[in-house]
């Protein structure tokens, strides 16, 4: 195989991997639901969802008061109509579907991080202040269920949360996501003082994490 063919093969593998990751995000239940909801709203099937079509879809069932319908439609239009032409295209639906999937992932991960921080706190109280070395120790101690020790990452993979067992003072990082939870490189971290926050990877040198301290600006 000559060098050019090798490079081409490598590029093709790379592209197929990126595509697989994008597809995982597109197949997230929240993305699927978002897509189905909007495609159903396109009643004249011209590939675009107008404000009127969206309003009719949100009004279905007739349970929501008009002002609430308007609020939902406004926020969906603002979020999805990226080129501001007053209608949502198929492409805009896909971008919106991925964005809602990422938001759902972050929301779930942040909730799990809170639960894990509480479990770590209980663990420390039961064991003279010792910090568990892995989330697996929390499962063994029956402080958390096995299903929640995995963190969902933006690339669609699941990896166990990481505990920094050498964390000491209140502002030290005690728990962190094993990778980025959104497409902008955001990590979720838990501090010794119990706070859970999102941090951009440029503010978070994972290789130096053992000694990383976070001093929130607010
Ligand atoms: Ca339409
Ligand atoms: Ca548009």
Shape: globular
Fraction of residues in H or I helices: 40-55%
| Number of domain modules | 2
Distance between the ends: 58 Å
Q: How many helical stretches?
A: 6
Mean pLDDT across every amino acid position: 87
DSSP strand content = 5-15%
Strand order of the largest sheet: 5-6-7-8
The total count of strands amounts to: 8
**Element order: H for helix, E for strand:** HHEHHEHHEEEEEE
Low-pLDDT ranges: none
Ligand roster: calcium ion
Q: Major β-sheet, in short? A: 4 strands, antiparallel
Alpha-beta classification: alpha+beta
Tell me which oligomeric state these chains represent.
Answer: single chain
Whole-angstrom Rg:
22 Å
List keywords for this structure.
single chain; 218 residues; alpha+beta; Recoverin, domain 1; 2 domains; four-stranded antiparallel sheet; two-stranded antiparallel sheet; 48% helix; 13% strand; binds calcium ion
Q: What does this molecule look like?
A:
With 218 residues, the chain is α+β, with helices and mostly antiparallel strands. The protein has six helices and eight strands, in the order H-H-E-H-H-E-H-H-E-E-E-E-E-E. Bound molecules: calcium ion (2 copies). The site of one calcium ion (CA) has 7 residues, from strand 2. Residues 42, 44, 46, 48-50, 53 line the site of one calcium ion.
Question: Layout of SSEs?
Answer:
Blueprint: H1 3-26, H2 29-41, E1 48-50, H3 51-59, H4 66-80, E2 87-89, H5 90-126, H6 135-140, E3 150-152, E4 158-160, E5 162-163, E6 173-176, E7 186-191, E8 196-200
Helix pairs in contact: 2-3, 2-5, 3-4
Bound molecules: calcium ion (2 copies).
């Amino acid at each position: 195989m000559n060098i050019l063919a090798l490079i081409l093969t490598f590029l093709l593998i790379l592209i197929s991997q990126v595509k697989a990751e994008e597809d995982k995000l597109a197949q997230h239940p929240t993305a699927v639901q978002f897509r189905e909801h909007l495609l159903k709203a396109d009643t004249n099937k011209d590939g675009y969802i107008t404000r009127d079509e969206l309003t009719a879809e949100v009004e279905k069932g007739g349970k929501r008061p008009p002002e609430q319908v308007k609020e939902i439609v406004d926020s969906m239009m603002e979020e999805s109509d990226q080129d501001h032409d007053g209608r949502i295209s198929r492409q805009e639906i896909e971008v919106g579907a991925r964005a809602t999937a990422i938001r759902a992932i972050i929301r779930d991960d942040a909730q799990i991080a809170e639960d894990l921080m509480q479990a770590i706190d209980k663990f420390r109280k039961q064991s003279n202040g010792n910090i568990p070395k892995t989330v697996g120790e929390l499962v063994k101690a029956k402080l958390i269920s096995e299903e929640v020790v995995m963190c969902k990452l933006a690339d669609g993979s699941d990896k166990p949360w990481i505990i920094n067992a050498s964390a000491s003072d209140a502002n030290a990082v005690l728990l962190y996501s094993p990778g980025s939870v959104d497409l902008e490189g955001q990590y979720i971290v838990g501090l010794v003082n119990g706070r859970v926050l999102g941090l951009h990877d440029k503010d978070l040198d994972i290789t130096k994490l053992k000694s990383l301290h976070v001093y929130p600006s607010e």
